[in-house]
Design brief:
alpha/beta, seven-stranded mixed beta sheet
Length: about 240
């Protein structure tokens, strides 16, 4: 038998994680203040070059019209790169960025709000769309249900989610390419933790249903290894 440190055994253990349930561990970026800028920049690179932005474009095409105005709340917006994409593709869109950390929002475009996603400081039905990207995997299932229910209260039309697919390929991608792309050490540490905590499409749909959202529909995009989900806001 091989040792637990052998590549074959390590891959098998990761495969079990990815095919089994979610595994949550603390991520460094969740507790970093301004020093996190390098890792936030890495997240923008990953979104731009490895499928985050393209997944967003596909998702928005199912619910938005470039010739019509709409409002969107971006929860967990961080540096705001996804919101900038929305503004670029939909010039009539009104995008508000929200994050728990004011320092993370420093590079995002206004309007921006530093607030707790569990206690959104908005009246019911304040936005046409409530959106989050690479955000929900930070939370346990019960917390995800609470978050989605809150998003549904604030949304008039749809709740939109993009998150990671739990899969061995993205689990290894950042550590194995760190010397090629120069990923920040925080990114390298958090990337595998994020994948272990990520979802399968059916899991996200089930959580949305538990939150009272209507007709959740998801699609998995590869090689981006992103799941995009849209669900109707309750009346």
């Amino acid at each position: 038998m091989g040792s637990l440190d052998s590549p074959k055994i390590r891959y098998s253990l990761v495969l079990i994680h990815c095919l089994g349930g979610r595994v949550l561990k603390p991520e460094i970026l969740d507790t970093l203040p301004p020093e996190a800028r390098a890792s936030l920049a890495d997240l923008v690179r990953l979104n731009r070059r490895w499928g985050g932005h393209s997944t967003l474009r596909h998702l928005l095409a199912t619910v938005a019209d470039a010739n019509k105005s709409f409002s969107l709340l971006d929860v967990g917006a961080a540096s705001g790169d996804m919101g900038r994409c929305v503004r670029h593709w939909y010039p009539r869109a009104e995008v508000t960025s929200l994050d728990a950390s004011a320092s993370h929002l420093a590079d995002s475009d206004p309007p921006r709000v530093a607030a707790d996603a569990f206690k959104l400081p908005f009246r019911p039905k304040s936005f046409d769309l409530v959106f989050c990207s690479l955000f929900l995997h930070h939370f346990a299932d019960q917390e995800v249900v609470r978050l989605l229910a809150g998003f549904g209260q604030v949304a008039r039309r749809q709740v939109l989610v993009i998150d990671l697919e739990r899969n061995p390929i993205p689990y290894y991608f950042v550590p194995w390419t760190r010397w090629i792309f120069g990923w920040d050490p925080v990114t390298v540490n958090d990337a595998q933790i994020s994948v272990e905590a990520a979802f399968q499409a059916r899991e996200l749909e089930a959580l949305a249903q538990s939150a009272g959202l209507l007709n959740p529909q998801s699609r998995t995009y590869r090689p981006a290894f992103r799941i995009a989900m849209s669900a109707g806001a309750p009346p």
